[in-house]
Amino acid sequence: GLIIQGAMALIGVAFGILIIYGGFLWMTARGNEETVKKSINLLQTAVIGFIIVVGAYAITNYVVDTVITSAFRP
After folding, report:
1. pTM across the whole model
2. Angle of CA points 56, 49, 33, to nearest 5°
3. Which of 7, 8, 18, 71 has its CA 20 to 30 A from that of 52?
4. What is the dihedral of CA 52, 27, 37, 9, to 10 degrees?
5. Which residues in 5-17 are b (16+ Cβ under 10 Å) and which e?
6. Exposed, middle or buried by CB within 10 Å (0-12, 13-18, 19+), for 22?
7. In this model, does residue 7 exceed pLDDT 80?
């Protein structure tokens, strides 16, 4: 459990850094369409990745809780 919590914390930090970097790119693009597209793509990819990771965590947590509960049920 501690390993998963640590991994989720690292993923949260990485997500935050990617969001800040993508926002910084967008704000400093100065009308350069290529940089704006790059930053939007980065933001979209970061959000999609975060949703996938949170979904995988939720599914794993549910399955582990179900297995533990059913294993110790008399």
Report:
1. 0.80
2. 170
3. 71
4. -20
5. eeeeeeeeeebee
6. buried
7. yes
